[in-house]
Amino acid sequence: MNFFSELFRGFDPELIAQLFLSTSLGLLVGIEREHLGKAAGKRTFALVALGATLYTLLSQFGFQGHQGPTSFDPSRIVSQIVVGMGFLGAGLIVFDENRVKGLTTAAALWTVAAIGATVGLRFYALAIVATLITFFILAGLRRLPRNQQ
User: Strands, E, within the chain: which ranges?
Assistant: First the structure.
């Protein structure tokens, strides 16, 4: 095989569309966070969604030649996305004067990673609905009064 045929091996327009869809969904959530001046904004959220989709796609298609009794389990990569996002989110959470800050942003990043993985698994409608629900929780529920106990 020459370089150019190897370069475009596995090129699939649907895979490229998946990357753009997940990035767009992450961007939508990130715009809301950035509008509020939170630590993680549109670039962070877009990259988390993109990365989760890319890892999910790699887990499905990158190891297809490893079939057999000791084959690679693609679900293990998705489970590691959850763990990695927990680590990233923990870095956002801080305690300041008896208040916890960054918890909602960390939870939103964790959710956006799940949305990215969902796109990678081709559950497009589910990912879009989850994004809309996430956006509603972040933007819509903020308007409700807090319980000040």
Answer: 94-96, 99-101
Residue with tokens 């763990």: 83
The answer to the question of residue 68 being in a domain is no
Whole-angstrom distance, CA of residue 77 vs CA of residue 75: 5
pLDDT tens per residue across span 19-28: 999 999 999 9
Cβ-in-10-Å burial (0-12, 13-18, 19+) of 105 comes to buried
Query: Where in the sequence is the domain holding 111, given as residue range(s)?
Result: 15-61+73-139
77 close to 58: Cβ distance less than 8 angstroms: yes
**For the chain, how many structural domains are there in total?**
1
Specify if 103 maps to a domain.
Answer: yes
pTM: 0.81
